[in-house]
Amino acid sequence: MIRHYGEGEPHVMDEGMLQKALEGQTGYVSKQVDIQFSEVLQLQLAYKGIRNIEYLWQFTSLTKLELNNNIIKKIKGLDRLTNLTWLNLSFNNIEKIEGLETLVKLELLNLSNNRISVLENMDALENLNVFSIADNLLGELENVIYLRKFTQLHTLNLYGNPISEDENYKLFITAYFPDLMYLDYRSLDEETKNQALTKYFYDIEKIRRHELQLQQAVEANKRQEAELQLHRDAFVEFLNGSYLFDSMFKGNPEAEKLHCLTGVADLLQTFESQMVELCAQVFEIGLAEHKLREAEVQLFLSGHTEAVADNQQRAAQMVANFEEHHGETIAGLQQMSDTNQLEVKLSHCRDEINQLSDSLMKLEIQLVNQLEDMMKDFELKISDMVTNFIETVQGIFAQCRDLENFHHEKLKEIAVATLEKVAKSEVEEDIPDNVRMFFLDKDQVMNALGASHDTHLVKINDRENLLGTRVNAWKVALLKEYQDKEMKRNRMRISEIHSLADCFRKQLERLQLHGQ
After folding, report:
1. How far is 302 from 403, CA to CA, in rounded Å?
2. Which of 152, 348, 401, 453 makes a 20 to 30 Å CA pair with 314?
3. Which residues fall within 8 angstroms of residue 152, CB to CB, at 6 or more apart?
4. Helix or strand or coil: residue 152?
5. 348 plus 273 within the same structural domain
6. What is the pLDDT of residues 251-299, one digit of tens each?
7. Which among 288, 275, 191, 185 has a CA at the least distance from the CA of 230?
8. Does 170 share its domain with 259?
């Protein structure tokens, strides 16, 4: 039976409610504890009369959320809870599955005792292995097939829905979910599985073939996307074909009237093949240069990591030696009863701490200088690679412009000859009437030729400029990223050295106070 909680006064989810709920949980028993919502792992909000899910955006570490037995109508406000693995929304008034798009880690979802009639909007829940949607309004047995995409699903609860009254319900579910271990809280035995497979064998084979085709299409699309992303990273996307050439002639109806003239088709075919060949050169050079840049980046990163690790090891050994000596000194000071002598020794210890701090700082300065030299060398190499790449590409695009100029002159010759034939009424009879009329106006023809030529050059120039702008922007962003990271590392290291020295000094202060 479906239970609903529409009666009673609703309560607003606010900070006070959340604080009170946490105070009652294990680990938050003391009201004096400063509870950080961002650190909470589990939250129990059952039986609170909650109508709307609100104010949970701060619980970014939450893994388990209990919202059962409330009067919630809509699933929302969970977007930031990306670490949830357990979500209980049973015994509410929910009518639609939604608002779960970011909960990719969810393993258990309980929506039992609501008003849901369709299984939908769960595609992101790839890790789902326990799903309870008992006592709802699911009326189409075929709709359950939607859940086949969840390959880790081993427990499914559907009892209390209209579909569970179907005489074929159990065998249908068992057949379509061969990896299911528990259905409606009961284990599925081998006999039931065999019966289900026999009854629905052909249906299952058909859907498997369909799913295989879909999977192959998805994988092919992923490969295409990965390939295109590689081309983008190399700044040469859509240069491995006739894309640039096609874009030059797209949306120019006046220029298209010239294409039916005798000799233009061969001229265009030659122009296209030469343009495609030049674009292919840019494309191949771009991929090769990208590979070289990536190798240079990896070489720099490995050298940087090695330098930092070596410096950290030397610093750690320095601190370890100091701690061993310092520990012996402290032990001796604790035995001293002469106040004056103790003060002298403490002063000497302070000097040693300062010397340690200075030594660590000098070591850090050495590392900073070493990394600066590495960064300068890296910047020089990357800049040279980018400059050479752009200059090479510029040379090829210059050849593209030469091809366009040549094509334009040849096309112009054909157009002028056609104008003369039209004027003398000597034009070929197979020319379309609209083209014949077009060639009655010389200015119109020459303007169309000029505009087409300008458009082609603009397309070539734009693609050349786009490549150069993007590769330069990549260089600037890359160098800034590593410079910022190094600055952050240096600041943290300096702070660590100061904190270490302060820790040793406070130890001496406590010893001094004890001696007094």
Report:
1. 45
2. 348
3. 126, 127, 128, 129
4. coil
5. yes
6. 777 777 777 788 888 999 999 999 999 999 999 999 999 999 999 999 9
7. 288
8. no
